[in-house]
Amino acid sequence: xxxxxxxxxxxxxxxxxxxxxxxxxxxxxxxxxxxxxxxxxxxxxxxxxxxxxxxxxxxxxxxxxxxxxxxxxxxxxxxxxxxxxxxxxxxxxxxxxxxxxxxxxxxxxxxxxxxxxxxxxxxxxxxxxxxxxxxxxxxxxxxxxxxxxxxxxxxxxxxxxxxxxxxxxxxxxxxxxxxxxxxxxxxxxxxxxxxxxxxxxxxxxxxxxxxxxxxxxxxxxxxxxxxxxxxxxxxxxxxxxxxxxxxxxxxxxxxxxxxxxxxxxxxxxxxxxxxxxxxxxxxxxxxxxxxxxxxxxxxxxxxxxxxxxxxxxxxxxxxxxxxxxxxxxxxxxxxxxxxxxxxxxxxxxxxxxxxxxxxxxxxxxxxxxxxxxxxxxxxxxxxxxxxxxxxxxxxxxxxxxxxxxxxxxxxxxxxxxxxxxxxxxxxxxxxxxxxxxxxxxxxxxxxxxxxxxxxxxxxxxxxxxxxxxxxxxxxxxxxxxxxxxxxxxxxxxxxxxxxxxxxxxxxxxxxxxxxxxxxxxxxxxxxxxxxxxxxxxxxxxxxxxxxxxxxxxxxxxxxxxxxxxxxxxxxxxxxxxxxxxxxxxxxxxxxxxxxxxxxxxxxxxxxxxxxxxxxxxxxxxxxxxxxxxxxxxxxxxxxxxxxxxxxxxxxxxxxxxxxxxxxxxxxxxxxxxxxxxxxxxxxxxxxxxxxxxxxxxxxxxxxxxxxxxx
Length: 710
Description:
mainly beta; Maltoporin, Chain A; 22-stranded antiparallel beta barrel; four-stranded mixed sheet; 7% helix
């Protein structure tokens, strides 16, 4: 698929026709009845962005609420995402406490949290099931359409989800089928050629079944030259419930995503040249395409009132393709840019797995005890293709406006470099024991066994090898309820991260073990009286050992023995101080550093420096005014300064971006919403791609959309 390929117009036409029919249906319904104002108000006024009373499947598998869980868990519901005008999951998650979006062309979707970065430290899952990371990349899910909520767990989550999750995890929970008919639609358009279409609904099937289908398409010209992007997605869920105690779900999803082919602009003396804001120095036929197919079958059996069995079998298939020139520098000749690293990469990744969990509630020594035990196994077959196995790389020079971008070129053909087979098994248990009705002690243990077979298909850069890992994780916690609305908690946990992605570990890293991390955390969570709001405060200290460093006695050798740490405080609040007013606010302050790290053949110490792409100050704020017939909101997102190298010699300045939106509820079924992103048109660096190359954040963009709900 070339860079200039267009989205499927038959797919878009189907969406348009569905939405047109939906609108006609709405008009017929509106002719029959009017919605009393009080009902509109009840539906439209959202009360919290934290949801402490909501049950979490991410912080625990014991059916605990966020208030009861001894960890920092935040539940972001779809209505709040809509209220803020966010579309992508990463837009929504980057407004939660302490999370920042560091996605780029090479990582897909990636985050920074609690001082740790990327898909080897901050995990992602859908309905509690992870696609294992290959080559630091995760590309699905990315679009928020079709999801009910997003649960964010901050800090090590290895005891629940395995390795590569020391910084936290984002768990996207999809909308479930219902036997009560409903239909939702979305039509959106705006500046920069942005458009988005979505339709989703659920309906009964026969006497014991229900189906839910969600489809979406989006695209635009992007905020830089030749920055076209588009995607479309289909999510299906068929549910059979033959009895009150047994439920079966069968899921098929397909996604085709083509993000913007953009890797930023070169700096001049470490600074952003504002006149390059809209430039894109990639070639004309660049490709970035991610195809994902997913099949899942899930059984939930309530064996008794106090015992439940859940089994999930799944198959994932991801195909990724990149082609372009990635690195740029200002040329020696005035008004030119030198380009290098002409890269073509392909991934073919298939994962087959099964997860079984038995959970129950019982009495132990006359005290309530909740427990769960589970086993999961996953096999990943991975094929990796590239064109840089011999290190031959062409270069080119273009004028500073890239008026003639040229085509992709390569010296070496793109070939399969290696394949790998990874089998990961895990046994996990969790328990929450109520010493008193107010004091609960909890524990979680997980033992993983990982077997990796790496097979070289080219003799140039890799060799065959086999490697085993057996990480052990735990979390010990206590929660004390001062009242039904206030909890004090503490926890001590241990997790692990790989030094490089396990599935795609190169032979030069085959002798390294996983890193290990420990966290201590205390916090308080409180729900205000009369539903006037919620707030949380958390303090933590995380240290990660055995990161890669240079041998102090022989700096030419890379060894394990480095260390990094992070400590901080987080505050979040969602308040309703006056009728119709709502304020959401969160703040994260941290101190992240390398305690022991040496780089380069000289073994230069980076101790005390801040890791790359880690802001030590992050804050978000939203103020909403909500009436039965309309609502308005103003938001701010602040990200502190970051560094693009471990030497901390190049800095990404901090920034604050403002967003605004207003909505008019035409009737109970139709809402018209307008939004402006980056209200002041702030020029800022969103993330670094290289030490002297930054990705520029999105410029001002206005959108208007129609939302339909029946």
